[in-house]
Specification:
Blueprint lengths: L3 H4 L3 E6 H16 L13 H26 L20 E5 L8 E6 L4 E5 L16 E2 L10 E3 L6 H4 L37 H24 L19 E5 L3 E4 L21 E5 L5 H6 L4 H12 L14 H13 L1 H4 L5 H7 L11 H17 L2 E7 L6 H14 L3 E6 L9 H16 L4 H14 L3 H5 L21 H21 L5 E6 L6 H13 L7 E7 L9 H10 L4 E6 L5 H12 L3 H15 L3 H13 L3 E4 L4 E4 L1 H6 L6 H10 L3 H11 L4 E3 H11 L4 H9 L3 E4 L2 E4 L2 H8 L4 H22 L2 H14 L7 H20 L3 H14 L4 H4 L1 H18 L2 H14 L3 H17 L3 H14 L9 H14 L4 H5 L7 H20 L4 H15 L5 H14 L3 H18 L5 H12 L5 H17 L3 H17 L4 H18 L2 H18 L8 H11 L2 H17 L5 H11 L8 H21 L2 H21 L1 H18 L3 H17 L3 H17 L3 H18 L2 H19 L1
Parallel strand pairs: 10-13, 10-14, 11-12, 12-13
Antiparallel strand pairs: 1-2, 1-5, 2-6, 3-4, 7-8, 7-9, 15-16, 17-19, 18-19
Length: 1331
């Protein structure tokens, strides 16, 4: 398309508007192949209509500007406008470009100033002569190649058009607005249309509206308006214009007679004492017949007829501003304000509501900005939309969702509901929708990749997620791995982990940010909140970002609502939050909304909108429902003759309407037939939505009609049916339907519906129906139960529902089912219904532990302990209580209780001396003559008491580590002995792994290695997935003394993964901790170690595991100090304070060890202080662990250095003990891991003993061994220590060589701060030699 600037350089011609109309119509007809003859032909083309509307808008806006300037005195008089009796159409000029290659086009030249140019092609106009300006070349500085103006416009054009300077008609070119002000003749004050009185000013405005209407009539119809119709014309209403003279009386006059259309002079008014009195109105039908849209026809008619003064107040135009506004709406939103309504369709459907956004532009913009910010940063963000019911929260979120979807993003949505007992229903709805897409597109590369990744990350545990997201079963291979005795805490953690893996996979395969929208979070269940919290905490690491939108009724959420607690938690993890508060719409917004809904200009609907606003107070839901009601009752209806919506204000005002939306819905429901009201109430009892199969089952079992009546409600827009599910159109409708039955009667209906469903649900194993049925029975309450037999039956139903909830890892819902079942039990239930009572209480106690309800656990466990008939019946609950003590940091009580229980089970854990303990370990090792192959195929333990004893011993093994480490060996030995005596149990691998640690600690490295490998094999053999993470960590600690340290991290990574898959957060954290710490000592690049530490810390913070968190933070401090990046580490005092608060002596020992290491490696003066504190706080253990090797190595080097400084033999003895241990591990265990460490300690010892020749040789051995075994960190350290040795013994050249290589190795390791420090020391020591 030719640009505006190019067109300005071509010849320009000027036409009168009348000439432009004729030429443009001829052009469009010739293009369409039509005829120009016959003024009645329907000839408006889209191009002509669009261009004409632009012309009409520019004309009306110019008059508006002139009136505005006149009001403020910027224009003395309105003599710039044509006179009342002037043919206005002849006073309008159209300036055209010379291009003849394109059809009629409208180009935006300066959109921000609403300036447009009109290019008419292929019609080549004749140049107007005489008073008109000739065609000339355009001004090269003028970007507008054609424009409209009023000739003789006397106002300051620069003021009128925001600084655009006017140009004159000259031979050189045309300006923006060609004003020849020198030819204007001032109008005298006797002009009645220029009077200063308010009355006459109003008449002036009306006259201008009328005259401009005549111009529009000709502009859009192609004909001049005449006072009388021609014979045979389709004009049905003749029009005459009478001009009355005060002296001579009325006489007919042609308003166009005697007007010189080419004149540039303004004439003084010749009718100063005349009055225009029209007698008939313009025919809208004739304009519509000409192809003019009805809205535009009415606009023209009302403008011309406005001089009558007999139109209604709202429809009459009183100023040009309203005309301009209406035309602008037709241009900007033609589908709404210009195009004719589909009368045939609307006569059948009635008023149709759209989903346009009104009055929420600012809120929507903030949401959109937050989403885009999430896209840019790739991080996680939360947006909370709050407000009262019906305020438009969901609509706002869904509006963003549509925009996200259109742009290729992923928008998943779910909704929490009242009375919904199905676990994770909202999350399941959102994620199941995504899985359905995977099913449909499973053959595509994208879907195949997603499915493969899900299969890999979910592994064998996908079954637990399939229980919640059923469609996953269609794309994943799975097996049922549910265990009835599974640790409830681990099960909850496992589900959280699986959900995080699922969402992370979705994010990683989505090109744009994944958005999760959950509605009505004020009704969110605790289990869903727990999952959501974990997903949001982990979402910081999701690829591509994660955007969560939640909507809530803030008036129904107290400050202590669990959702707010969740927000506080994730906020502390760096997840940003946006809160959007919605209020009711104001009057102007509601008027604009009504205007677009009825396709009428805002001025025409204002009276109706004021009535509606008074009733609804601007609540969007109330507003839309009220309009639908008015339409249904005929108070707002479609007029076929006027082709628009009309209403009866008097009847609407007279109608008694409720002032509350809930009452409004209640009234609407009560107008329905009785069976429809009952069907809606039945539906409302189940929440906001119900599966059709449940309604059908109720209909069958209760013998009542429900589906048919619900269709009636659907016709009334109260419910919808989508994908075999009935939904209320809004929560308020559900609440209103529920309120139609008296409160005292509702419980009977709930109970009736529940009992009608529950038997079928149990037989068909339909979980959704089971949860719904039992939920209804519980809502029915005790008043709906008539005898003890029914109470027992209901308790059995709740037990079944609770067990299914446990399978889904929803322990919150399960606890609710169990406690409800307990409440229904008869008075003497412990005697009459013992087994049922025991199971309900035991499972309720287990769920209380999972949900953190320790008070509830205490009450439930006391009941079991007091009423159980035998010791064995107390064991499950006792184990739950013991676990609760351990989780709540009451470790001493946990150990005390555990020791008491195992003693009653026949396992004695005596307190032995060190010598006795060693003897017991060695004797047990001797009797273990069974081969590994035979142990792997050993019989299984079947005695329930012994199985429970193994569970208690395994739990004790963890607990005594903190407060009674001396008991660890005996507990491990007891587990091994019990296994050999009675068979393998799921806990046996823990016993063998711990026993392996004991054997290795007694210097039998290979013996311990054997039991460690056996423990790992037993996990696979017994499928002891629940203890897999623990066994992996324990066994890897021993394996690292035999196999290369660099490979041990692979085992720990696997251990963390299998632990999380089982929900074992504790051992997942221990495996990740060891992985991070191990990197520091194995020579991995420190940047990798830094990243691994950072991820481990984030994970531990997310899981709230403070013990391992502080171990990793201590190592992180050392890593960052070596790199020279201290920005990511916490200050020493803060770290120390946290360790002290944890009251963990091992953490304190590790803290001093890390400080000692940094002082040693960075040559600080406080090395001796921290070395003494380390040895003072060092704790001895019965198990051999990898960190002991690192500690002995560094503490040995420190000891030898301090001995050379202090000559205190204590330090020499400490160094020698470290050397001996490393020598043993190098010979009996792994020379790869320990040989170079032993050599370096031996070299330092030789140095201390002044055996310099032997020291020199041994330093070389240490360097070679470290290099060969890929320990670049230890190679750098050995080089540095050798350099110091040669420096102090006077061999400067060799010393410099070692220092130089050490500097290079430190840099390769990533220890830049250490390398820089060493370089400085080299310069200081060898400055003279270097010179």
């Amino acid at each position: 398309m030719t640009t505006a600037k190019e067109l300005t350089q071509k010849p320009i011609a000027t036409l009168s508007l009348r000439q432009w109309i004729t030429g443009a119509l001829e052009s469009t007809r010739s293009v369409d192949g039509g005829s120009v003859t016959g003024s009645s032909s329907r000839m408006l083309s889209p191009d002509y209509l669009e261009s004409s509307l632009r012309i009409a808008l520019l004309l009306s806006e110019q008059i508006c500007k002139a009136e505005e300037l006149s009001k403020f005195g910027l224009v003395d008089k309105l003599d710039a406008l044509p006179l009342a009796d002037t043919d206005w159409a002849d006073c309008v000029r159209v300036h055209l470009g010379g291009n003849t290659d394109a059809p009629v086009r409208l180009h935006s030249v300066c959109p921000e100033k609403d300036l447009y140019s009109l290019e008419i092609q292929p019609y080549a106009p004749n140049v107007i002569s005489d008073d008109s300006t000739s065609a000339t070349n355009g001004d090269p500085n003028d970007e507008m190649h054609s424009f409209l103006d009023f000739f003789g416009f006397g106002a300051d054009v620069e003021t009128l058009h925001d600084g655009i300077s006017p140009a004159t008609h000259t031979a050189q070119g045309l300006g923006y607005f060609n004003i020849i002000s020198s030819e204007i003749v001032a109008v005298e004050n006797d002009n009645p249309f220029l009077s200063t009185s308010d009355s006459n000013r109003s008449k002036e405005r009306v006259q201008r509206i009328h005259n401009l209407g005549l111009v529009f009539y000709e502009l859009f119809s192609g004909e001049q308006w005449r006072p009388c119709s021609k014979a045979g014309s389709p004009l049905q209403i003749e029009t005459a214009l009478l001009i009355a003279d005060e002296d001579d009386g009325p006489r007919e006059r042609d308003p166009f007679a005697g007007i010189n259309t080419n004149s540039r002079k303004r004439h003084a008014c010749q009718a100063s004492r005349q009055q225009v009195v029209p007698v008939q109105q313009v025919s809208v039908e004739y304009l519509s017949f000409k192809g003019i849209p009805s809205s535009l026809s009415y606009l023209i008619s009302n403008m011309i007829d406005s001089i009558n003064g007999d139109l209604s107040r709202d429809e009459a135009y009183t100023n040009i501003f309203h005309v301009a506004s209406d035309i602008r709406l037709m241009i900007e939103k033609p589908c709404t304000y210009l195009q004719d309504l589909d009368l045939e369709k609307l006569s059948l459907t009635g008023l149709e509501l759209n989903e346009a956004l009104f009055g929420r532009e600012e809120e929507y913009a903030s949401l959109e900005l937050a989403y885009k910010g999430c896209m840019v940063s790739g991080s996680a963000e939360i947006a909370l939309i709050s407000g009262e019911s019906g305020i438009g929260k969901s609509s706002l979120a869904k509006r963003l969702g549509r925009a996200i979807t259109v742009n290729g993003g992923l928008f998943l949505s779910g909704k929490f509901q009242k009375h919904k007992s199905k676990p994770f229903a909202a999350l399941a709805s959102a994620f199941d929708e995504y899985c359905q897409v995977l099913v449909r597109k499973r053959d595509s590369d994208w879907a195949s990749a997603v499915i493969s990744q899900l299969q890999m990350v979910l592994c064998n545990d996908s079954y637990h997620l399939i229980e919640i997201i059923p469609t996953l079963s269609q794309i994943l291979v799975y097996t049922d791995t549910t265990s009835s005795n599974e640790n409830s805490v681990n099960a909850q953690n496992r589900l959280n982990h699986l959900m995080c893996e699922f969402v992370e996979t979705i994010c990683s395969y989505s090109a744009i940010v994944v958005t999760l929208f959950l509605d009505d979070v004020q009704w969110a269940d605790m289990a869903s909140i727990s999952v959501l919290c974990q997903v949001l905490k982990r979402s910081r690491s999701f690829a591509g970002g994660f955007f969560f939108i939640g909507c809530c009724r803030d008036d129904e959420m107290q400050n202590d609502h669990p959702f707010w607690n969740m927000i506080d938690t994730v906020r502390s993890f760096g997840v940003t939050e946006l809160t959007v508060k919605l209020d009711c719409m104001d009057k102007e917004t509601l008027n604009r909304m009504l205007s677009e809904l009825l396709c009428l200009p805002p001025r025409l609907v204002r009276s109706l909108s004021e009535i509606v606003f008074q009733k609804t107070k601007g609540n969007p839901l109330f507003f839309t429902q009220l309009l639908l009601s008015l339409n249904k009752d005929g108070l707002l209806h479609l007029s076929l003759t006027r082709r628009r919506w009309v209403w009866n204000e008097e009847k609407i005002l007279a109608r008694r309407l409720p002032d509350d939306v809930a009452l409004f819905f209640t009234n609407s429901i009560q107008k329905l037939p009785d069976d429809a009201q009952l069907a809606l109430f039945t539906l409302s009892c189940f929440g906001g939505s119900v599966e059709c199969e449940i309604i059908e089952e109720l209909e069958k079992n209760l013998g009542v009609q429900l589906i048919g009546p619900l269709k009636i409600a659907k016709e009334e827009c109260l419910v919808n049916k989508i994908d075999k599910i009935f939904h209320f159109c809004h929560d308020r409708i559900q609440e209103s339907a529920y309120s139609t039955i008296e409160v005292g009667e509702r419980h009977f209906h709930h109970a009736k519906y529940g009992h009608a469903l529950v038997v079928t649900a149990l037989k068909s194993r339909n979980d959704s129906m089971l949860f719904a049925a039992v939920g209804q029975i519980i809502l029915g309450g005790h008043s709906a139960v008539s005898n003890d037999e029914q109470r027992v039956t209901i308790a059995q139903y709740t037990l079944a529902a609770g067990k299914r909830a446990i399978v889904m890892s929803d322990f919150t819902s399960a606890l609710s089912f169990f406690t409800s079942g307990i409440s229904f039990l008869p008075h003497n239930h412990w005697n009459d219904n013992y087994e049922l009572s025991l199971e309900l209480f035991e499972l309720a106690a287990r769920c209380s532990l999972a949900t953190g309800d320790m008070d509830g656990l205490s009450v439930l466990s006391d009941k079991v302990i007091n009423h159980a008939k035998c010791f064995e019946d107390k064991l499950d609950t006792s184990f739950t209580v013991m676990s609760a003590f351990a989780y709540s940091s009451k470790v001493a009580k946990s150990v005390e209780m555990g020791l008491m229980i195992v003693l009653k089970l026949g396992v004695d854990i005596p307190k032995l001396s060190h010598e006795e303990t060693v003897k017991r370990i060695r004797s047990t090792q001797k009797v273990l003559t069974i081969s590994d192959a035979d142990l792997l195929n050993y019989r299984l333990m079947s005695d329930s008491r012994q199985l429970m004893a193994m569970k208690f011993l395994a739990k004790l093994q963890n607990a005594v580590h903190q407060i009674k480490p001396g008991l660890q060996p005996i507990i491990a030995i007891s587990m091994v002995e019990l296994t050999i005596a009675s068979g393998l149990s799921p806990m046996s691998p823990i016993g063998f792994a711990c026993f392996g640690g004991l054997v290795a600690k007694l210097n039998d490295i290979r013996g311990g290695y054997r039991f460690a490998k056996l423990a790992k094999a037993l996990v696979d053999k017994l499928e002891s997935n629940e203890v897999s993470g623990e066994v992996t960590w324990l066994s890897t600690e021993i394996i690292s003394f035999v196999e290369p340290l660099q490979t041990s991290n692979e085992l720990r990574v696997q251990g963390a993964a299998v632990a999380m898959a089982a929900g074992d957060v504790h051992w997942a954290c221990w495996n990740r901790m060891s992985t991070a710490i191990n990197l520091l000592w194995t020579g991995a690049n420190l940047s990798q170690a830094k990243e691994t530490c950072s991820k481990a810390i984030s994970f531990m913070e997310e899981q709230g595991h403070r013990t391992t968190l502080y171990y990793v933070r201590s190592s992180q401090k050392s890593i960052l100090s070596l790199i020279g990046d201290t920005s990511g580490s916490i200050p020493d005092d803060v770290l120390a304070k946290g360790v002290v608060e944890n009251k963990n002596p091992r953490q304190l020992m590790i803290l001093f060890y890390q400080k000692m290491f940094l002082s040693f490696i960075l040559d600080r003066d406080d090395m001796k202080v921290y070395a003494e504190k380390f040895f003072e706080n060092r704790l001895m253990t019965w198990f051999l662990m990898s960190n002991q090797a690192f500690q002995l190595f560094i503490s040995g080097l420190v000891s030898f250095r301090l001995y050379r400084v202090t000559h205190d033999p204590v330090w020499a003895e400490r160094g020698a003990r470290s050397k001996s241990n490393l020598q043993l591990w190098a010979t009996e265990g792994s020379s790869w891991n320990f040989e170079h460490k032993f050599f370096l300690l031996q070299a330092e010892e030789f140095y201390c003993n002044k055996r310099f020749d032997e020291a020199s040789v041994t330093y070389s051995k240490a360097i070679s061994s470290a290099s060969a075994h890929k320990f670049i960190n230890d190679e750098a350290l050995a080089r540095e220590l050798a350099g110091k040795f040669y420096l102090e013994t006077g061999n400067l050249q060799t010393s410099l060589e070692h220092f130089t290589v050490a500097h290079e190795k430190y840099q390769q390791w990533g220890a830049y701060a250490k390398a820089d420090l060493l370089f400085t020391r080299i310069q200081e020591k060898f400055s003279s030699a270097l010179c």
